[in-house]
Design a protein that fits this description.
The complex is a heterodimer of chains A (245) and B (163). By secondary structure, chain A is α/β, with parallel strands linked by helices. Chain A contains seven helices and twelve strands. In chain A, helix 1 packs across helix 2 and helix 2 packs across helix 6. The radius of gyration of chain A is 17 Å and the shape is globular. With 163 residues, chain B is an alpha/beta fold. In chain B, the strands form two sheets. Chain B has a five-stranded mixed beta sheet with strand order 7-5-4-6-8. Chain B has a three-stranded antiparallel beta sheet with strand order 1-3-2, with no helix packed on it. The chains are: A alpha/beta (245), B alpha/beta (163). Chains A and B meet through helix 3 and helix 4 of A and helix 2 of B.
């Protein structure tokens, strides 16, 4: 199969679904239709034992005590995998959802980041995602850090970033170097193209592994079973993100 | 109040009211934040009864806001009897002792949703987002929807909502 056989959203969902482990608790936060698709794809394939938690959903939301109950659940250490994003993401795994420019006089005010300032620490593993990969987003240093990639040892932090998955590549987070390392490059993306669209050195070469493509089974389940579930929370996304079944 | 995470982020510099302290139990660094204690909260309820008891959306945290506030002004989609509100299965309950005043205001959540009554008004929210880009477009929006209608009934008529 080639890149013509899937949408970017389907590809990313399939890549992210591989991060979900059977028997673990996965949760998906706000404005996260691709992670929601990934969590459901995993649940319908290799990870059927635990239902994913999807915020703003009727069927995949096990709480009745407001968002407080979810945040308490996370702080208790019950989440194994969570997905986060940022207006900027830097080579140290720092996230910025506060402001572009100075926070006192921003060029662009972002939605705010207190939620991810907690949820970047408490689940065991965090996968960072971003569907548009550009030098302005993937930068050497974010303008403001609402959620740091790493913290000093004295800080209470049971979990942290493991992967960053974009429309072009997969980075893994190296906790010793406190930095992102290129793990694989998506099919059809050249090392030169990836470097020109990334604001920090990526060390891409012809020897870089290629990200495995979605299987026909994964694509079938995404378009058949996942799409109608995702449409209940993200109707606009579901109309454009999936090819016909 | 303690909150996990945050330590090592720019919240330490941007929010001087957020303090990093040593957790007296574990000896680790932890952030504490001041509680939010509003003078006045305005809350929209799924239902209210004659004793001021409220039934609130389960996905939101308004049920925490009410007991934390000095004054609570509630609007409600429906006013029902105390008996009836006890039997309603969906919603988080706030006791009337926390509530200062209740007004019957069907449609009061528009352009957002009210549970089982009406959905989010997506075209209206798109109009709002477009208008909010600049003062020159936002002022006509405010004139049309906020300052224009002479009362709530006129507003509902204007946005074609029949709650």
């Amino acid at each position: 199969m080639t890149a013509a056989d899937w949408t970017t959203e389907e590809f990313m969902a399939a890549v992210m679904a591989r991060e979900v482990r059977d028997g673990e608790q996965t949760a998906v936060g706000t404005i996260s239709p691709i992670p929601a698709s990934a969590a459901l794809l995993a649940y319908f394939t290799h990870a059927p034992r635990v239902k994913p938690i999807i915020i703003n959903s009727e069927d995949w939301w096990p709480f009745r005590g407001g968002s407080k109950e979810f945040y308490d659940f996370a702080q208790k250490g019950r989440l194994d995998l969570f997905f986060l994003s940022g207006g900027q993401i830097d080579c140290h795994g720092n996230l910025n959802t506060i402001a572009i420019g100075s926070p006192e006089a921003p060029r662009l005010r972002l939605p705010g980041g207190a939620g991810s300032a907690m949820l970047y620490y408490t689940p065991k593993r965090i996968v960072v995602f971003r569907a548009d990969h550009s030098p302005a987003i993937f930068t050497e240093r974010v303008d403001v850090v609402n959620a740091p990639g790493s913290t000093p040892p004295a800080v209470v932090r049971p979990g942290g970033p493991r992967k960053v998955i974009t429309s072009l590549c997969v980075f893994r987070f190296d906790p010793d170097a406190k930095a992102l390392r290129l793990e694989s490059i998506h099919p059809g993306v050249s090392p030169e193209d990836l470097q020109s669209r990334t604001g920090f050195p990526v060390e891409a070469s012809s020897a870089t592994p290629i990200t495995p493509a979605p299987t026909p089974e994964q694509l079938g389940i995404l378009r058949g079973r996942v799409r109608p579930e995702v449409a209940k929370v993200y109707p606009v996304f579901a109309r454009s993100a999936f090819r016909a079944a | 109040m303690p909150v996990l995470g945050h330590v090592g982020s720019d919240y330490e510099r941007l929010r001087p009211d957020f303090k990093v302290i040593k957790d007296p139990y574990s000896g680790r660094d932890i952030m504490v934040v001041p509680p939010i204690a509003p003078e006045v909260s305005i809350i929209h309820a799924i239902a209210a009864d004659e004793e001021g008891n409220l039934l609130l959306e389960e996905k939101e945290d308004d049920f925490l806001l009410a007991p934390a506030s000095r004054v609570v002004l509630a609007s409600a989609e429906r006013i029902v009897s105390a008996d009836e509100i006890r039997r309603m299965p969906y919603g988080l309950r706030v006791q009337g002792i926390h509530v200062t005043a209740v007004v019957h205001l069907p449609g009061g959540a528009h352009p957002t949703a009210a549970h089982d009554r009406y959905p989010l008004d997506e075209p209206h929210l798109r109009e709002y987002i477009e208008a909010a880009h600049a003062d020159s477009t936002f002022k006509p929006y405010l004139d049309r929807y906020v300052f224009g209608p002479k009362d709530h009934a006129a507003y509902l008529e204007l946005v074609k909502l029949r709650p």
